[in-house]
UniProtKB/TrEMBL annotation, chains A, B:
One of its GO terms (molecular function) is DNA binding. InterPro entries: cNMP-bd_dom, cNMP-bd_dom_sf, Env_Response_Regulators, HTH_CRP, RmlC-like_jellyroll, Tscrpt_reg_HTH_Crp-type_CS, WH-like_DNA-bd_sf, WH_DNA-bd_sf. This is Helix-turn-helix domain-containing protein. PROSITE patterns: CNMP_BINDING_3 (PS50042), HTH_CRP_1 (PS00042), HTH_CRP_2 (PS51063).
Amino acid sequence: MVALDGIPVRDCTYCCGRTKSICNAIEEKDLPRLLAASSRLHLPSGRIFIEEGESAQAFYVIAEGRAKLFNLFSDGRRQISGFVATGDFLGLAASERYAFSAEALGDIKLCRFAYETMDHLTEQFPHLQKRLRAEASRELVKMQARLVLLGRKSARERLASFFIEQACCSEDGLEEALNQRKNLSIPPVISLFLPMSRSDIADYLGLTIETVSRTLKIFKAEGLIKIQDVKTVTLLNTVRLKFISEGNN
Amino acid sequence: MVALDGIPVRDCTYCCGRTKSICNAIEEKDLPRLLAASSRLHLPSGRIFIEEGESAQAFYVIAEGRAKLFNLFSDGRRQISGFVATGDFLGLAASERYAFSAEALGDIKLCRFAYETMDHLTEQFPHLQKRLRAEASRELVKMQARLVLLGRKSARERLASFFIEQACCSEDGLEEALNQRKNLSIPPVISLFLPMSRSDIADYLGLTIETVSRTLKIFKAEGLIKIQDVKTVTLLNTVRLKFISEGNN
DNA sequence: CGTAGGCTTGAGTTCCCTCAACCGGAGTGG
DNA sequence: CCACTCCGGTTGAGGGAACTCAAGCCTACG
């Protein structure tokens, strides 16, 4: 696919961008063995590194950067099933074949674990298997929320949900604060960098680019957001957006 | 929740309705130990046995019968995230709390595994942990398809997808046959028993009952299905339905 | 300065939703 | 045994949210 790029194997950040990644499932002293079992990739923006239907051979951890996961129809319709960022795990949604395609959003660094070497590792480190299961469960919980969004939410609610989701990804603790209505601890405004295009957002939310554009305009007019530039949005009223996202408009 | 109903522990069918269930992850001789760690429930139709947001304490295996999984909005909107049948696994989509509610569709029998006893079991039977992960992966693949359905398919395509999905559940090998276009091996007509109401189908597909009803009428007029009675539908042209479900129409 | 690509805006359309009436089988009670 | 009600499902009329198509705008880039 792509040659290794020679990053030293000891560099843990290469598969452990965050706590949610898998390295915390094993002891510090065993890390080198885990890393030795993986290969590191450096991909340019736009590169498709997993193709739907392709025989599934490996997991990936995003070491740095972002990617989008999607499914394509023969007539061009597209559904983006998720955006992933540093530390996220990829390739659990596969039995024989990958259930989605994945494309780099900007340059990214990946850590690749072939299934078979992973199988050896999970035998040596039982915690790892458990960790993978936990990761899959997390993923399933997120999917559940996405079903509700696509099946039952209006365009307005979808966009609000999207902003809240993105904000929660970039601000640790925000999700909890919003859920508990502890408004005091919520930063009044949150600035988001959105590397994806309008078309990506639309395909993620099951809408068209025009509807996304128009809804953003409305949010702007209502003072809910400020559009710094086309890829940078500032949320001016997170609590209200959260409220809208839940259908309480 | 409900008293055990005294079924002998040796009765494997109680947690192993099918190959996809978890018993095949351990040796025959160890089964009694697995079963001893579980409790058996017998619930009446309509009983809600998992509630969204409730602290997650256990897995369930459907030993017999069917159930629906769903999420509720405060304003009454509902999204059904899945129907499960004998042998299916429940409760993986949970981190701290369940991400969905579950309700019996007709009388059902359940096998309940508390997380903590399950943790002991997975230590004794490493295969079990792997099996759980595989189950979660299967689930994720299905979810992926549901995202596409809810995000990008028309009402017509959704109903066709629904029929194909239900047919594949009740006819072993059908899915493969349809994917490979080996039409010879596909039974010409398939009769389906659908225990769920129109309202359930609508909430599963992100539609309204009226749209479901109207679309069925159209399918009938086109000779694609025959409606035996309100809960029994015969698919008259599975290949065509599969075609429609994929957007080629 | 010109072009291309992504984004926005406008006008018109459509698919599905909403609301309302109707239908028919199951259960109840006189 | 029939009348009544209830409830899930069907059918029809009308409306609206989001889509489609088309034009215009802005920024990036050669």
